[in-house]
Specification:
two-stranded antiparallel ribbon; 19 helices; globular; developmental protein; Interferon-related developmental regulator 1; differentiation; Interferon-rel_develop_reg_N; ARM-like
Length: 447
């Protein structure tokens, strides 16, 4: 049988009108039923063949920036419908690409009404992929859960999503047999979704305890050892620590005091980890804890201040030859700011520009919150800062600024203009390097 005819044959065992299947368009414009996936992967013969809006890999590769520039709202909603259907596909790769495609689209624009109508369908798909999927599929599902809650913001809808997905995310985080990447993504997602949607204070405390049980495993256990050796679980511990720190910023003062007493004297041990990302995460968390403590008590006193500042100063001026130059440069930059925060109660203000607006990040709490959502939304962060009411409330930006189409067009740089600008910058750098090389050559010939 020719290939082009074989593509349009239905899945083996597929029946028309089944309620469990979801419709997706094929190359011929006809409709077929997509069977809900089973635990086993589909064989090559039964694997889905998708085209047009139903090809999920193209959306996953394009990313938010391309979708934001080329797709109208209606086009993207049409694509989203196809991608949502494909989360039920038998093929693991198709489901994963569909999840990533949905996440990219939702990170690029606001689809509040569209998502509101389909939140239960999306939640069910994410739950199935978390429970039945493995590794990358679980990671993609967890990432989509975060963006889904960001789209909907705080309210009963997000609370329902967290009630459904929270126990599943928690189970994967604590499951030692699950992949580290999946557990890491679930820890971040659990923290973000809880930050947005948790209404019950006891549930918030339970989430904090779950994350604590993960990252505290990196605390220095042996007194004779001065260095914490990184393990494959270190990336999970880092994500758990950062998610825990984020949730601590919305806790009542009584709970913050309790957590400070528990962790203030243990957290500095993570500064001796041989993983640079763990050292940085621990340093920034410490700076945030000091900020919270001094916000509650202006005369807050830390007993081991001298030894702590010595450690921070050593990391801020680290010159160990066995460490990579990039890691040392990154570490020194961060710990100079951390040292200033601990010693001088100072924070170097950062400015974030988006559209006609700008936001000043003037505290460690604000910086950590911004960094967390930037990690989830990627290049879509600027758009959401302009349009997402939830994020604007978090950062106290007020209601969204309404701009007419003409103003937006004058502000927007086309892809061609960006290409010209980057090309000119590249040529300038190349010319500068050539001149520098010529000077070195002349000096060498002179001597």
């Amino acid at each position: 049988m020719p290939k082009n005819k074989k593509r349009n044959t239905p899945h083996r065992g597929g029946s028309g009108g089944g309620g469990s299947g979801a419709a997706a368009a094929t190359a011929g414009g006809q409709h077929r039923n997509v069977q809900p996936f089973s635990d086993e992967d589909a064989s090559i013969e039964t694997m889905s063949h998708c085209s047009g809006y139903s090809d999920p890999s193209s959306f996953a590769e394009d990313g938010p920036e391309v979708l934001d520039e080329e797709g109208t709202q209606e086009d993207l909603e049409y694509k989203l419908k196809g991608l949502i259907d494909l989360t039920l596909d038998k093929s693991v790769k198709t489901r994963q690409a569909a999840l990533e495609g949905i996440k990219n689209v939702l990170a690029s624009k606001m689809f509040y009404e569209f998502i509101l109508e389909r939140r239960m369908t999306l939640t069910d798909s994410i739950e199935r992929c978390l429970k039945k999927g493995k590794n990358d599929e679980q990671r993609a599902a967890a990432a989509l859960a975060s963006v889904l809650c960001i789209q909907l913001g705080p309210g009963i809808e997000s609370e329902e999503i967290l009630k459904t997905l929270g126990p599943v995310l928690k189970k994967i985080i604590c499951d030692g047999t699950a992949s580290i990447q999946a557990r890491q993504a679930c820890a971040t997602s659990f923290g973000v979704c809880s930050f947005i949607a948790t209404d019950d204070i006891t549930e918030l405390y339970s989430t904090l305890e779950c994350l604590e049980n993960i990252f505290t495993k990196s605390y220095l256990k042996e007194k004779d050892s001065n260095v914490i050796c990184s393990t494959p679980n270190t990336v999970l511990h880092i994500s758990s620590l950062l998610a825990w720190t984020l949730l601590l910023t919305i806790c009542p003062i009584s709970e913050v005091k309790k957590k400070l007493e528990m962790h203030f004297h243990k957290l500095p041990s993570l500064l001796s980890c041989d993983d640079v990302n763990m050292r940085i995460a621990a340093g920034e968390s410490l700076a945030l804890l000091f900020e919270l403590a001094r916000g509650m008590e202006s005369d807050f006193f830390y007993e081991d201040m001298e030894s702590l500042t010595q450690m921070l100063r050593a990391l801020a001026t680290d010159g160990n030859k066995h460490r990579a130059k990039v890691d040392k440069r990154k570490q020194r930059s961060v710990f100079r700011d951390v040292l200033r925060a601990v010693e001088e109660r100072d924070f170097p203000t950062e400015t974030v520009k988006f559209g006609p607006e700008r936001m000043y990040i003037d505290s460690w709490v604000k910086k950590h919150t911004y960094d967390t959502f930037k990690e989830v939304l990627g290049s879509g962060m600027q758009y959401h800062l302009q349009s997402n009411e939830f994020l604007r409330n978090v950062f106290e930006l007020g209601p969204p600024v309404l701009l007419d189409a003409a103003t937006l067009k004058t502000m927007k740089i086309s892809r061609f203009e960006r290409h010209l600008y980057n090309s000119a910058a590249f040529k300038a750098r190349t010319k500068a390097r050539s001149k520098c090389r010529d000077k070195r050559t002349d000096v060498g010939e002179f001597f």
